[in-house]
Every structure is written in structure tokens, then in C-alpha cells.
Design brief:
Structural class: mainly alpha
Number of helices: 12
Helix content: 40-55%
Strand content: 5-15%
Largest sheet: 2 strands, antiparallel
Distance between the termini: 36 Å
Strand order of the largest sheet: 1-2
Shape: elongated
Amino acid sequence: MSGSPADDLRDRPSYPAAEAGRLVGLNPARVRRWFKGYDYMHGSAVRHQAPVVRRRGDRGTSYASFLDLVDLLFVKQFLDHGVSLQRVRAALREAFEILGTTRALRETFFTDGNDVYVKVRDQGDAILELLSGGQWTIAPVIRQLSTQIEFDSPGGLARRWYPLGRKGHVVLDPFVCFGRPVVVGRGIATASVYDLFRAENERAEAVRAWWELSDREVEAAVEFERRLAA
């Protein structure tokens, strides 16, 4: 992080745990645990499980920043493909130490897989468990994310998230509408489009006329909000 205004916006706590969980597809309680860790009993001793997602400083809050949100998405992607949270924790911990990063999702994971493999080959046992035959087996796992995340530059941090894909007309941009989901290029919150759609008895033509949106933009906003509500 450079400390620039741009970085501050991306790392500003903006999403309550319930909203972060809704956007990423996680239970709010799990979001809080991944951010703050938790205490548990081991025999007669109380131990603390460290957070899964590393955040800047000790915020003392379960609110997520845009970068936190993307890291949650990254970790969940592994879990959805059957990788245990314990293995992901260990691999990320080694990646942070070996590669000198504090964020899970950087463009290097998409563009520099071979170089990353060389760096960890002799040091990262946990990371190597996610590798096979010298190839990144995590590549198929995160390939889907590569169609959704836009980065600043090679090796940089996430800049925008397109939850329906780059052509899906919905984006989360920390510089637009405080990072809320909006229609691409319009700055209109998808929640507002969906609320009007329901108020108009699901007549898309009324929404188009009011917001001056295309059919595809209305359909994308409605699809996205319905997906969140499912």
C-alpha cells in the first residue's frame, strides 16, 4: 500500500459483515471470524485462532473494505472447490512470508504462476500441497475470478470487481457509490434498479424509461439482486 488516496478508498471499511457475507456468499458470523479470529478451548487452555484474512492494522471492526471483500472471495473460491480452510490458512501464511505480500489476491497469482512456484518450491510445504507436477493446480480454481477482477497493474491489487463477469453490466468500484454494486458506466445502484422493478410490478420498460437504461442493463441488475437474495 502506498498510502495514496486511491489506496485509502480501497482499504476503507465500507461493508458491514452482513453485507460482505451477502455479496461474497458467506455467513456473516464466518466473515467476522475470518476477520478477527476467535478463542477456543484446547484441553484446559484457551487458545486463539488467528484471522484468515489479513487486514491493515488492528481495526477492531468487522466492517470490510473493498480489498477485504476481494480477499474473502478469493479464500471462499478454494473452499468451494473442496480445499480445507486449514490448508488454505497454511498456504496463505507461507505466501505472505515468502512473497512479502499482505493481500491474498494479487495479479501475480494469475500472471506469474511459474515464478511463484519457483520461489516457494524449496520453502513452502503448504503451498506445494496445492501444486501438482510443477503446475499451479489452483489455476482452475481462480480462473473464474480472473474474469471478474480488474487489477491496477501486473502484480497489483484489485481495482474493480465484476461479479457477473466483465460483460455482465454490474461492478463494485470503491470510487463509485461508496463501493456498492452499480450498473457499469452509470453509477446507478443495482438495488435501486431492483426496487423500482418490483415497485413497477416487474415491468422492465418502466425501469428503462425512468433510469434510461438498456434492456441488458436492467436484466443484469435484476439478476444480480435476485442472486443475492437467493
